[in-house]
Amino acid sequence: MRHLKAHRKLGRTSEHRHSMLRNLATSLINSREERIVTTLPKAKELRPFVERAITLSRRARTFSDEGSAAQALHLRRQAAGFFHAGNMTVSETTGKRGQLRPERTAGVAALKRLFNDLGERYKDRPGGYTRILKLGYREGDRAELAIIELVDNPREVEAAEAAKKRKAAASKKRKSSKGKEAKEEAAESKAEDSES
Question: Residue 132 in 3-state DSSP?
Fold first, then answer.
């Protein structure tokens, strides 16, 4: 029986799997199009991982009483665990031959974007911040590919506004063409009345 074994192992050790999910989450949050292409099992594992982080940023937006800054900071530190954002207490000189480790700027940038932009965008949305679209199979190994993207991204909003504009222009054009037809019919009926 598979009791309490809820997630896919993805053929990796737990450390490797957690690190991979952190890298995928960082890539998704930082990407310009707010979408990444990966395999379907990875996308399905990434979805709850990212949505938990977005929920933390959303909850940080709701505080308005005393001590809210401390609570928001606590949520930000919890969310830092979802990214390679310098949240590990590791000595700075544990790299090769005592070299300094480079800063994890991508994770820090993802954390900033998560709490500045995405928390505000999803403040009224109770969940479902991501969407998975199947792409088909990869040519080399026939792995099933998928796109995982954030919903309500600027590209979608622009497309919806453009569709509204097209629809309004089409309805306005139909009204004006109906008006022209009515005028032409009225002119024809006047001409017929004057002839008889």
Answer: strand
Q: At 71, list the tokens.
A: 């609570």
d(CA 98, CA 105): 20
3-state per-residue secondary structure call for 71-99: HHHHHHHHHHCCCCCCCCCCCCCCCHHHC
Query: For the segment 164-182, what is each residue's pLDDT rounded down to a tens digit?
Result: 999 988 888 887 777 677 7
Other C-beta atoms lying within 10 Å of the C-beta of residue 82: 24
Q: Phi and psi of 52, rounded to 5°? A: -65, -40
> Half-sphere exposure of 47 toward its Cβ, with a 13 Å CA cutoff?
19
130-137 β-sheet, strand order: 35-39, 144-150, 130-137
- Specify whether the CB–CB gap between 57 and 75 falls below 8 A: yes
Q: Which two tokens stand for residue 111?
A: 């954390």
Q: Give residues with Cβ within 8 angstroms of 26, minimum separation 6.
A: 83, 84, 106, 107, 110
The stretch 119-147 carries a mean pLDDT of: 93
Instruction: Fill in the amino acid letter for 67.
Output: G
Q: What HEC string does 11-55 produce? A: CCCHHHHHHHHHHHHHHHHHCCCCEEEEEHHHHHHHHHHHHHHHH
